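Please check the following for our workbook:

***
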Amino acid sequence: MNTQLFNLLKTDAEARKAKALMTLHLMDDKAVGIGDHSTDDFYNNAKQALSDLATAEDELENLNKYVNGDYDV
């Protein structure tokens, strides 16, 4: 994989990871910001942020594993 593509994919995954972490932090620390949202909205938003975090971390792990040659073909 060329360097530009690797950097693009890595930067995108890092940004989505940061967004997910910020979302979880705000939901935990600043719950007043959810306003009149229902419990289901709060739960669904938290669940989505967790899923986004897991996906981004998985992508970063795989980029490092497969792009840096730490695997057998």
Q: What stands out?
A: The CA atoms of residues 20 and 49 lie 5 Å apart.
